[in-house]
Amino acid sequence: MCLGIPGEVIEFLPGQPELARVDVSGVRRVINVGLLSDDPPKQGEWVLIHVGFALSKIDENEAAAALEFLEGIGQAYEDELRALAESRIE
Fold this sequence. Notes:
- With 90 residues, the protein is an alpha+beta fold.
- The chain has a single domain (5-86), classed as SH3 type barrels (Roll).
- It is built from two helices and five strands; from the N terminus they run βββββαα.
- It has a five-stranded antiparallel β-sheet.
């Protein structure tokens, strides 16, 4: 099962505005935000992430509800966090 997981934008990589470092439940990784070029996220905003790409912006309430749901489903969420932790986009 593949899930979209919420992450908070922490910073953008210098000279690479399409790459952002996000925090997902304490895991920090670089993701591609290029799909959101029409309305790019800003530092502190939340995005929905799937396989290293931000698919959409979401608000903080949506992010909290999604994280609560994901934590409740257990193993699939743990698998997604593990995949995120092992991914590298830089």
